[in-house]
Amino acid sequence: MTYTPIRLLLADDHPVVRAGLRAVLETEPGIDVVAEAATAEAAIARAAHGDIDVVLMDLQFGKGMNGAEATTAITARPGAPRVLIVTTFDTDADTLPAIEAGATGYLLKDAPPEELAAAVRSAATGRTTLASTVADRLMNRLRTPGTALTRRETEVLILVAEGLSNQAIGTRLHLTEGTVKSHLVRIYAKLGVDSRTAAVATATGLGLIRRQ
Description:
This protein is an alpha/beta fold. It has ten helices and five strands, in the order βαβαβαβαβαααααα.
């Protein structure tokens, strides 16, 4: 079977991961790995050259911008390449910002090689591929929208999990302390809890925030 060549950019801060992705994908017909980037900023710059069809983007880089921010910057340009997130993180706090940023697909790094190659080909044509855990969680959010945490509520809860006070959370997110308290009230109601500790434990168990 003949495939139209798909030109890839691998964006990950771990050389071993990039080497592994390259080794897997270069054996696939019609897929060419033409560049690599070790930072989100480098990925943005390289994607702007106009010779990339799909960017395989990690979410967390050691320093600087993260993958969701890079995805926003890349997809905002006319004629931009597609962005396929390939990461180890699958919580709402990770997936939702990436999808909102314009990612075409979202896979986990333990995906089988054939699934990764299929996702690359789907992304190149604009079709969406989601890891099963991510797809299930998004479907649950659609079925029960009243119980899903908003992006801001998720941000607040992540900072609660880090041990920040309401005042410190307000400073970090540029909110008043009263607004933070209001967010917490809604979070407690949605999760069916009555304390910060229980909210963090429940949200972590549900995959809404990442384990610290």
